[in-house]
Amino acid sequence: MAADDPNYAKKYYYENVDERLAQEKAIDDWLPITASRTAKWWDSAFHNVTAIVGAGVLGLPYAMSQLGWGPGITALVLSWIVTLYSLWQMVEMHEIVPGKRFDRYHELGQHAFGDKLGLWIVVPQQLIVEVGVDIIYMITGGQSLKKFHDLVCTNCKKIKLTYFIMIFASVHFVLSQLPSLNSISGVSLAAAVMSFSYSTIVWGASVDKGVQPDVQYGYKSKTTAGTVFDFFSALGTIVFAYGGHNVVMEIQATMASPPHKPSKRPMWKGVITAYIVIAVCYLPVALVGYLMFGNAVDENILLSLGKPVWLIAMANMFVVIHLIGSYQIYAMPVFDMMESVLVKKLKFQPSWYLRFITRTTYVAFTMFIAITFPFFSGLLAFVGGFAFAPTTYFLPCIIWLTVCKPKKFSFSWFANWICIIFGVILMIVGPIGGLRQIILQAKKYKFYA
Q1: pLDDT tens, 63-122?
Q2: Is 350 helix (H, G, I), strand (E, B) or coil?
Q3: How distant is the alpha carbon of residue 75 from its chain centre?
Q4: Which of 68, 216, 353, 360 is the most buried (most CB within 10 A)?
Q5: Lowest mean pLDDT among 21-30, 49-58, 277-286
Q6: How far apart, in whole angstroms, are the C-alpha atoms of residue 235 and residue 228?
Q7: In 295-445, which residue ranges form alpha helices assigned H by DSSP?
Q8: Torsion angle of C-alpha atoms 203, 166, 377, 54, degrees rounded to 10
Q9: Stated pTM of the model
Q10: Distance CA 424, CA 314 (A)
Q11: What 8-state DSSP symbol labels residue 31?
């Protein structure tokens, strides 16, 4: 019989393997991270700017007021150096195994720690970051829309923040249906341009406003405990401002990687460009904002800038446009995880309505949480310290030590351990200060007010 023929069994095996590989390729071509690999170095640049420069920049002058000049400048510069170094490591490790690409953060974690442990180490932290950031961007987008409305329509009836968050969310119900990370390149480019624009407006308007009368640079809190907690909270805010590593592997996955030109070259070129833009955005906003307002600066500096009205209104709208892009950059890996589980594990058929249901549900969930708990500065510090510190500051360093095994007491070994210690400290102190701020704000808060 044909079934007993060894050649028939071999042919049947190869046909099954080929069929399975074809199915896996079809699924990869449908999933949002691996659907397209046509990105260039400039795509890397503005994706990284959009991912990193977000709501955090608006809270930097307030963080400076909690830290003071010396500790504040040190934390800003040191974080810039440490996060650039850890990002370089992730770019290098994307194709550290010949012939294989780690297209997602958790795939790199699985390579370093094993399939099960790597998944449990990376995925929960990555989800906390990406979902937490999207919730914070919902809040900030709503706040900026409300500020814009109040500035351009001073005689209009006051509208609750809840409705502005819902307006901001309505855009994402549409944009979330874009199929892949590459398909939101235009949105990301607009967001990157807006981030540079509103950062320039913020420090430019601060200079125009001048140093305020009776400005004070001392710590605002009257108690030692309050000062310490504020210090911790500010460190969490700075961690949040530099966190973009959770989408680095996914951004690099959108690039082609032929043998003669591996993806790390254009990716690193884009990262360097992005980090120059980040320095130009962050340092002037943080230092000029604190210089002009001192410890009286608001947790969102745009709230401190009332005039010129047209310029501040424009800056708020730029923030809204930027946050639309940032939300999508962080949401896309979540969509990829959800759709991967549904299609690969639960065997759902890839379809437009599966995508529509999952993504609409996610946007609705982040909108609901943002409306329920709109605590901007506390959430920045809490999410920054609790989740961004591990995935940005020290997890890439631990993976590098595990995978690359640098020589003991070499420069690489020392550099990684310094980053790990620094990151662990930030992970411990950031959430403490942030949680305290959330509790203090919650005392005066009325739900859906």
Answers
A1: 999 999 999 999 999 999 999 999 999 999 998 888 888 988 999 999 999 989 999 999
A2: coil
A3: 19
A4: 68
A5: 21-30
A6: 11
A7: 309-340, 352-372, 376-383, 395-404, 411-443
A8: -50
A9: 0.86
A10: 39
A11: S
